User: Which sequence fits this backbone?
């Protein structure tokens, strides 16, 4: 279907996408220049997810000539279809359900009715609405970003300059591979039973309401989905080989932050088994009935459950790219690239979840942009070894820079500024600090639930080394804190303390810093 | 009561403060150096609110010798007692009630029961907990900040170097006046009736559950408290001489932002009468029963109500300071100071809500710090003519820098990057963008409620001129955006677009900028 001269509005795009998704025989969607039927593109972006879409848009903005090819009938990739967007919807529901439980039959909150809370219903809410974001991205990429694309057509790699899709052949000076990753599956018997899901299949395939869940894994996805399931009233057990929030995929997790976050999950009744691993998933009549887990002690435990959720990370699928293009792949399955996003094969770049580093949006998009800018003649390196990070439980948890322990390794003098305050022995259990948007109701009735925040400072240079927050409303700020503390001159407590706070602000770093900024020798607060 | 050698914990402080507030004959609380009974302080801070406490703490940190005197038995001033803290608690309740109404009997939300929502109950929740923040500030100021103070003792000004309080005389090289402001009362008959409140008396005196409310005023306090009352089910009418959100006390309010925010209030059923003013408040049996309002048309309307809320701004009480110290006061009642916070009387400074500019926390605290640093020998100017700002309805609304209209006045070429996108005629009414923490549930069921955001950019210099947001979770970020866009070198779209977003972030400025950063000639998005 050639839509170059059509300009579907959002509702029309929505219908076109829904229709294409529902019909396996639906035809490719072509947004190509009819006046130039066989152009040599500057780059073909194989995969129009976050990295491909942003990379292609940047290249086009620079005057270059990109083409995106994607197997799905929409741009944006897995994020709005199966990953970040449903996760955020579910996490917001978890936050809300959590509040409604704590305040059950108090104030304006009615008695909490767990029978109303349904994982399946929230999945269906997501499914009914997800194409609207797809529609917007297809519309925007065509009408505002002026990028050519072929959607609903799987790309077949021919050589480093040639790709086939939708029965046509496309040629380019470069290829940019951005086909993403898929959830990992552990080597445990019973995973073929009905009732075993990962973050993709839980959205695509869930067809009943689980009452108990065993989550395998201890990193972000496991914590986030586990917290959501548990908040709906689905009793959740997390089975994690490493301590949760301390896997190798998460860097800079401060121990006090971790203790607050994981303690909060346990306080809400989640069973968290660390140092444990699944031995087998058992079923009856084709469906999950239980999991055998080997505990840290070596003892085995049977856990009854009607759902198993795999939250073990992801791995890219690179077989075709390796075979056809000869690109190198590292030991964990990620495509090897340099700081320009160049693979080991000339004129072939790789971006997003295909390459190493965090499988996060900033890296996906900026790696796409980096590839585009280098193809267009810039000499630009993208180093994603340092970045801000976050996860959700029933809270929003954000962090950037060094932990207190890392700072003590790196500096002579480390100063900590935090809430509740950095003192021993004070009766802070009823102290409603921190409090801010999102934790005010907690602050006035269950102060211990109102969050935690910590700023880590080099006592000698006075520079902020790290910031750590559990609560709500600070995530956006951490984007800018990351920029400020990682810029060459850094950010001192004195500069931070002279900023204009918007009180009550979710993190109190500006004003707390001001209370110490006057001291020539900094001390804890 | 001399507590210098006592170290009350938070619970003990709480009891001491509650006891002092309850007993009009309670004695002063003295935290003074017993070894130096008659010192010459560097400054006496008359008023230990935000400005006095931060100023004194900074002075002490610099090695100076401050004394705080306050009539209340706690430090922190009106903010945690009657102003910002209850306001934020009420605004959070309003956000939550709003969500529970929209989702009544949908998903996990039960049928909304307006009879459970009570202004009085939330006021009582606040009253029961407010001393815990007071306790913390008294504890922190003594134990962590090492500042001397006399509390629960009204200061009497003697001369620019002498103050009496609690039966003792204190001397200093300088005075720093920080006694704050009190809500304004309009010249309308009937305000002595039971049922007329301002933000102070609604906390201190409310003793029944209002069912209808007329709010007089159109600026922050009126919008915030009006939105809260209305969210509880108390039908609210706002009577404002100027268009709401467009009073002279609010600068840089973008018209599109205003339209979204005020439209949202109206959509929720609030009656907003602009160009209108109250003529008289009527009562029966000593209590409010109605308000006569003169409408913009000149016509008079009777509004039945059992509550009137005055949200008209505040004015400092300066009679004593003018009479004793001879300081000058400007036409609006604010103490005249220079950029050093010096009044027209030598060695007398004024800070916080006593002086001009916004009655906001950043100005209060930083003006206190400015006075302290100048007294300690620095030459420091504090210019608060530019600052980020915010207010609450059932949303959190944040803004900084120029509006689109202001930018068009100032620049040749203005570029707007916003969500929903800056285009005419697109069917965006079902577009769930922006969406982020706090608006995900709306995004998937009532997309038009998911917020608004706009970035205003100089198309020539590529610098960000202003940012405007309605939603949740962006307020904290605006502290840093303010710093970045107002620093001498400013912030370009290109720098912003190279930051590391934490996706889904409440404001999408980083990634939206990135979609345009590649273009040598910027265009709207």
Assistant:
């Amino acid at each position: 279907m050639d839509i170059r001269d059509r300009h579907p509005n959002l509702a029309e795009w929505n219908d076109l996408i829904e229709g294409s998704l529902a019909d396996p025989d639906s035809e490719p969607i072509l947004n190509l220049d009819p006046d130039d039927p066989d152009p040599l593109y500057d780059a073909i972006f194989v995969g129009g997810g976050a990295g491909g879409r942003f990379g292609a848009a940047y290249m086009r903005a620079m005057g270059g000539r990109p083409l995106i090819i994607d197997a799905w009938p929409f741009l944006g990739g897995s994020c709005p279809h199966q990953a970040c967007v449903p996760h955020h919807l579910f996490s917001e529901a978890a936050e809300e359900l959590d509040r409604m439980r704590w305040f059950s039959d108090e104030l304006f909150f009615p008695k909490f009715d767990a029978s109303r809370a349904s994982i399946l219903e929230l999945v269906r809410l997501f499914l009914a609405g997800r194409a609207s974001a797809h529609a917007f991205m297809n519309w925007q990429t065509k009408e505002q970003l002026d990028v050519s694309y072929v959607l609903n057509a799987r790309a077949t790699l021919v050589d480093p300059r040639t790709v086939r899709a939708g029965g046509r052949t496309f040629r380019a000076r470069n290829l940019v591979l951005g086909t993403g990753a898929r959830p990992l599956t552990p080597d445990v018997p019973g995973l073929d039973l009905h009732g075993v899901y990962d973050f993709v299949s839980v959205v695509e395939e869930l067809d009943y309401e689980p009452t108990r869940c065993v989550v395998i894994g201890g990193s972000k996805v496991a914590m986030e989905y586990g917290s959501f399931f548990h908040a709906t009233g689905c009793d959740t057990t997390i089975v994690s080989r490493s301590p949760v929030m301390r896997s190798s995929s998460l860097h800079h997790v401060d121990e006090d932050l971790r203790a607050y976050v994981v303690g909060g999950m346990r306080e809400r009744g989640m069973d968290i088994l660390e140092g444990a691993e699944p031995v087998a998933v058992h079923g009856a009549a084709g469906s999950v009935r239980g999991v055998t887990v080997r505990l840290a002690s070596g003892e085995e435990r049977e856990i009854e459950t009607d759902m198993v959720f795999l939250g073990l990370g992801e791995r890219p699928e690179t077989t075709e790219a390796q075979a056809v293009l000869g690109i190198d792949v590292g030991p964990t399955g990620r495509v090897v690239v340099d700081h320009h996003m160049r693979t080991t094969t000339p004129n072939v770049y790789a971006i997003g979840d295909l390459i190493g580093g965090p499988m996060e949006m900033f890296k996906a998009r900026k790696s796409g942009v980096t590839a585009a800018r280098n193809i267009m003649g810039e000499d630009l390196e993208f180093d994603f070894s340092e970045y801000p990070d976050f996860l959700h439980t029933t809270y929003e948890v954000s962090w950037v820079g060094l932990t207190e322990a890392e700072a003590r390794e790196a500096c002579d003098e480390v100063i900590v500024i935090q809430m509740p305050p950095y003192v021993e022995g004070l009766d802070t259990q009823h102290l409603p600090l921190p409090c801010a948007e999102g934790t005010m109701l907690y602050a006035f009735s269950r102060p211990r639930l109102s969050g935690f925040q910590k700023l880590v400072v080099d006592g000698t240079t006075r520079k902020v080394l790290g910031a750590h927050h559990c609560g709500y409303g600070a995530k956006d700020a951490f984007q800018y804190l990351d920029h400020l503390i990682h810029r060459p001159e850094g950010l001192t407590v004195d500069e931070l303390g002279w900023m204009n706070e918007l009180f009550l602000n979710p993190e109190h770093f500006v004003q707390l810093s001001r209370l110490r900024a006057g001291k020539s020798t900094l001390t804890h607060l």
In short: The CA atoms of residues 82 and 204 of chain A lie 8 Å apart. Chain A touches chain B through 112 residues (CB under 8 Å). Chain A has three domains: 10-79+125-182+315-375, 196-312, 395-517. DSSP finds 15 helices and 25 strands in chain A.
